[in-house]
Amino acid sequence: MSGTVVRLKSGFARWSWPLTLDAFGAWALAVVWIAPLLFAAWAAFHTPQAALAFDVHAPLILDNFRTAWSAAPWLRYLLNTMMLVTTILAGQLVLCTLAGYAFARFPFPGREVVFYLVLLQLFILPEVLIVENYAMVSRLGLFDSILGIGAPYMASAFGIFLLRQAFKSVPKELEEAARVEGCGWGGVLWRVYVPAARPVYLAYALVSVATHWNNFLWPLVVTNSTSTRPLTVGLSLFAAPESGVNIAVISAATLMTAAPLLIAFLIFQRQFIQAFLRAGVR
Amino acid sequence: MKIMRSLSGAFLATALTAASLPAAAETQLTMYYPIAVGGPLTRVVDGLVADFQAEHPDIKVNAIYAGNYDDTRIRALSAIQSGDPAQLSVLFSIDVYDLIEQDLIVPFDAIVSTDEERAWLESFYPALMANGQVEGQTWGIPFQRSTIVLYYNKDAFAEAGLDPDAPPTTWDEMVEAGKALTGDGRFGLMVPSTGYPYWMFQAFAIQNGKELMNPDGTETYFDDPAVVEALQFWRDLAAEHGIMPAGTLEWGTLRQAFVQGQTAMMWHTTGNLTAVRNEAPFDFGVAMLPANVRPGSPTGGGNFYIFKGASDAERKAAVTFIRWITAPERAAAWSIATGYVGITPEAYETEALQAYAADFPQALVARDQLEVAVAELSTYEGGRVREALNNAVQAALTGSQTPDAALSAAQATADRLLRPYR
Amino acid sequence: MDSIEAFQRRRMALYGWMLATPALILLTLFAFTPTVTTLWQSLFSRGTARRPQQFIGLDNYAALINDPVFWQVATNNLIYAAATIPVSIALALIMALWANARIPARGVVRAAYFTPTMLPMIAAANLWLFFYTPGLGVIDRIAALFGIGATNWLGQPDTALAAVIIVTIWKEAGFFMIFYLAALQTIPPDLREAAIMEGAGRWTYARRILLPLLMPTTLFILVNALINSVKLIDHLFILTKGGPNNASKLLLYWIWETAFAYFDRPMAAALTVMVLIVLGIVAVIQFRALERRIHYR
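YS: structure for the whole thing
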């Protein structure tokens, strides 16, 4: 793989004349793309007056963070978000592994039809069904609970599909070898398939965490109290125009809530991008 | 279905054991409340609730901040529909028809029993009770109530050669002052037109001598000539007189624009008073809205409601809480913390508010304006009727429709929505 | 022997069903049942405690079709899709080519492109609010340098939808870049070498070799972008709330508003059905593509 990349680079070098142009274009676009975040950072560390006046000599301050921090239970929101992504991920891993295994290795009657039904969920988005899903969650007594936010996403068609593909590409011989050693169906799954699909699990887990960390509409609909509200809903409440908080404090709060995932991304950038590559393209 | 229930029952086992722990003698109340103005007000409410619980150890109040008025209505009703109900809430005073229609609230007359309590029902400013009294009963008790007032930058007035102590009192004076104040990156006036455009518009209509609805909440008069003229005037502030920016103006960021000196005058809720006071780096004045045919402003803001699902004990406890929090000292403290109207005349006689007003007379404007205030636009199908009017106002302000056409369309929508209730 | 095999087959079938069941239960609860109840619900009138709901057949659909707001919102959503899909795909491709080229500070550039993907849409909307604020915001400050006056980006019907579209493109282009990046890395460099040998120019190479090879990826991204043009509406809550005068209202936001702000669940259901029909058409396209994909392996 790395060999490929190196040779690709040398190939590019032959068309060297536009490369400086390329570099310039790439940087320009990068600056434009990151600008909103940079300006938020600028605003967050200045008084609203200085932030809007773009006064470069204005002193840097931390008051906005202090104000934002004390104005809402952010730690609780953060905890809720973490519990939420963990619950969803745990549910997805278990359910999708079992279902993916079934679709990959067990020829049961009606499998094709059922599989297509599962794939249908790629399009019957939980987001679109908010109204009836809300009714369902209420009926089940799961309203305003972490489980209620997570449940509609647990049987993820995307996850089932990915894992089915991954399991299918595992050579049958590995399974047979494990069987000879006396493994049952569960043992085979645990000893052979799950380890073989580890990169897919990692990729899927990262996509899932990033997606649900950022999810808003459904949590907005089914949460009602501080003890379940995730960060995104908390942020929208805090920053709603009606609340009249100023732009500097909103910027500070926005950065605060985005920070955990952003920092994780910057640290594990390579793994993140690789993860997305794997999960998306297969 | 049974399987589903037992399934969810299993999921919820831990939550249920947790809920059954509190002592039996304690009455637990859940209440949702909105905040629509600036400032760290959740802490003020939390503080009030803590004080109440210290005085009434047998009642526990779980106060949940739920966003703006619309969000809060959604949250409270969601909770009720999901079998996880609230016993009381602060909701939009104008939600009363919809709440009655959904059979969700109980009138206070049915809960109060003693003469003292009945007297308490009579103790509020009548203008603030108008939205809460329907079908001859009292459904809402005023809490965070406001009127629209005119904030103006005294420094800018002085700069423009105007008398900082003589704010405009009529539409014409306002336009004239606006013209003198406009220029050099500053507008003369801003009136917000997102969030609650119908509310601001109602002020224009009242001043032009026309109320927007009948007291039963079944008729609207959006296409009345005086109403159309009022919208034309609002639009002309930008289009003709050039003292206001074109397009819609954001409710939430307007205070900041005023504090930053982007506009010399703004119309806004009195609920923003304390926030403006804390933030404005210049001397500012507060005045009643200017008059045309007559002076006036709609009242606004939130009332306490008690939900039907509450048990008798919970209803009593809720009334105890509401009486406590609307008592003069608390009403005064709340008014000082926000700028909202002190809801009873007694509140203005407390030492705290007297001292505050002596130092900061701007705090009395909203109260004085109550004399000319009228009930806020409130009808059945309130959300959609308001939405229709909001759209009309925005269509006219952005120039995509004439005021006449926009308001006729809104009236047609309102007629269609309200016909079943007539 | 025969009976053992049959027994084995039955056991496999049983295991298969058992393994798939937990997922199928949840899918039934949160995808299939709601779809059916949505259809059913859309045939009733809005009920209140005093006025119980009634079966009204297709009246909700008729009301929608006669409602100019519906057509406006549908048109908005079409414009939204027609703008966000091609622009973000084109940008994603350009980004991927640059992020794959040998340029200085490539890692930083790549991170810059990708960062918006990691932000919640709500946070993104907050950042952009700062850009769009009339007079004070970043865009107007820059415009002022060129002598252009303040523009009320979010408060005017002609610009509100565009402002919302730009945020969406900003948010999703970096995400799509990743898929192109992956696809680019699987293209054998020999192809490129050969193209150079043949004396093909850059554009010829891009048009004749690169784009056809990237076609499956483009299709995959296209479907994702289509779904996003229904799904990505979180920023409306912060930026415009669909205003002014519905100028930036999108279908899913309207569904939310109808169901939760106006408590008109049947009407929201009718709207949902319409969106589901559109998504169904997308699904058919995608299944075709998926099948091709599966054949590849």
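YS: worth flagging: Chain C has 13 helices and no strands.
IM: good catch. Also The mean pLDDT of chain C is 86.
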